[in-house]
Amino acid sequence: MPEAGVVAQVRAFNRFYTRVIGVLEAGVLGTPYSLTEARVLFELAERDEIGVSELRQLLGIDAGYLSRILGRFASDGLVVREAARDDARRQIVRLTPQGRTAYGRIDDEQVRATEHLLEPLDEDGRRRLVGAMDRIRRALGDAPLPRTVVLRGPTPGELGWIIARHGAQSAPQEVVAARIVADFAFRADPREAAWMAEVDGEPVGCALCLADAGAGAATARLELLLVEPAVRGAGIGSRLVRECVRSARSAGFERLTAHAPAGSAAARILERAGFEADRQGWTRSW
């Protein structure tokens, strides 16, 4: 069960955000329609027609409540309800031209209100806001996996992010990550590289390609491969590994080694990338 303090913070955020977007007002942005009614209009405007039962499932609201909303809309001339042509037992609903006009006014007002909300923020602030919103949606299971992933070198402060995210897994991992990152930063070996995976302007993964002095000048090692749980399954880990392989080859190394427990997600990524298991861990040679 979540801690009481976490629950209180979520409730506080909900109160703040509902005030910001005007949910507490009698009508959405000065219109005669509630937020739920405006959402019904939106879903109807997105398609030519839809079954009433499908609409209820899409919205997740009570059947009686939806029936009253559609009844009001029908009285106002915004929708038409009728039996489906292929099944008289199934009722469908669609917007009338008057209904589409009403929705258009609401949509225009919402666009203007959102632009006004974003106006005080600079480009970086807007990017971070949208990124935070996307992370909330992913955390609550309401968004697809990210479409665009950027791989790049770390910016100032992100070496600390690498340490912190490994530390979130366990204290010993934080100590190991801090040592590896510190060695990388102080050596400044031009053959070595660190890679960050970014989604919506925020780091979501990392990997380091380092010289392995103990194994000879021709060997590099892949370290600190990590992908945030919220974006796993999108191929980010595989892309980070491929980038480390490419970097090691370009730097003149002849092989790249890595460690991952047998059967783990990391091991499967390494195997797909052409690594072979051996007594020391995983190795890819070229």
Automatic annotation (TrEMBL):
Sorted alphabetically, the keyword list is: Acyltransferase, Transferase
Q: Which domain of life is it from?
A: Bacteria
Q: Does the keyword Acyltransferase apply?
A: yes
Recorded GO MF terms: acyltransferase activity, transferring groups other than amino-acyl groups; DNA-binding transcription factor activity
Residue ranges annotated for the N-acetyltransferase domain, each copy included = 149-286
Keyword Transferase, does the record have it?
yes
Task: Give TM segment ranges.
Answer: none
Domain HTH marR-type: where?
Answer: 1-138
List the Pfam families.
Acetyltransf_1, MarR_2
PANTHER family the UniProt entry points to? AMINOALKYLPHOSPHONATE N-ACETYLTRANSFERASE-RELATED-RELATED
Q: What is this protein called?
A: MarR family transcriptional regulator with acetyltransferase activity
The species is Pseudonocardia hierapolitana
